[in-house]
Amino acid sequence: MLQSISPLHDDHHERSSRNSTASLTAALNDSKIHLLLAASGSVATIKLPLIIQKLSTHPNLSIRVLLTPSASRFLAGQSAEQPTVSSLHALPNVDGVYVDEDEWREPWKRGNGILHIELRRWADMLVIAPLSANTMAKIVSGMADGILTSVVRAWDARGELDTDVGRDPVGASTAGAETNGHGATKKIKRIIVAPAMNTAMWRHPITTKQIKTLKQDWGVGRGGEGGGWFEVLDPQEKLLACGDRGDGAMMEWTEVVKIIEDRLGLKL
């Protein structure tokens, strides 16, 4: 007699299938633009569904979402503007939602894909909105303790890898890049970050040093001529969730969407 399968089991199976490394490999050449959209531990994470919905006007855009454990705490169904993490799967254009537990979910064996590497290969661009003070510190320090920081740490900062994936990365920078062994210009895929934190955190000397690293040492530069791979969207001044008024709030989410559309060449 066949054992019945609960809807919960079906949902888990479907999610595991959509989030598998095999699904990423299969989608490499689907003729769509690929956006990795990530959120880290800031209250501005509640803007993530709005960003996704606004981008849904582009049918040729495929979105895969990365969430840190702290970001997930802001998406637990607390209110209408804070849906559950699982509900993100149902949003338009979302083809995967990844959390730390998805990395190494199954025992690895030689020949299997590695999730954070396959995500990097799949992506045309990574956008982290919001970028918390904690995650920024990890990125600048080179830590790779979760799915998001592992993707960032494994990013092709010199445009030397993934030349065999069969797709030309959209929005990649060629300024300052050398040619590869075949004489083709290296293309460096971009990481866009939108910091969001308390005013005291934003004005802290360590934040100043970290932003300098992202903007000057690793930055794409004005007009993309810097040869780097990071673009920083400076925060705005407003009344923060903690009650303080000052700078540190994430750039207005509608402006973040416009920048994504511009960098990826998305048109209505």
Describe the model:
Belongs to the HFCD (homooligomeric flavin containing Cys decarboxylase) superfamily. This protein is α/β, with parallel strands linked by helices and 268 residues long. It has one domain (32-264): Flavin prenyltransferase-like (Rossmann fold). It has 10 helices and 10 strands. The chain has helices spanning 7-18, 21-26, 48-55, 69-72, 115-122, 133-141, 147-153, 199-202, 205-217, 253-264; strands spanning 33-39, 61-67, 76-79, 82-84, 94-98, 125-131, 190-195, 230-232, 236-239, 245-249. α5 crosses α7 (147-153). The termini are far apart. The relative contact order is 0.15. Mean pLDDT is 88; it is low at 1-10.
Protein structure class? alpha/beta
How much of the sequence lies in strands comes to 15-25%
Give the overall shape, derived from the CA principal axes.
globular
Low-pLDDT residue spans:
1-10
- Return the string of H and E elements: HHEHEHEEEHEHHEHHEEEH
- CATH top level is Alpha Beta
From the 3D structure, determine the CATH topology: Rossmann fold
Q: Could you give me the name of the CATH homologous superfamily?
A: Flavin prenyltransferase-like
User: What's the β-strand tally?
Assistant: 10
* Whole-number count of domains: 1
Strand order of the largest sheet: 5-2-1-6-7-8
Kindly provide the radius of gyration, computed on alpha-carbon positions and rounded to a whole number of angstroms.
Answer: 19 Å
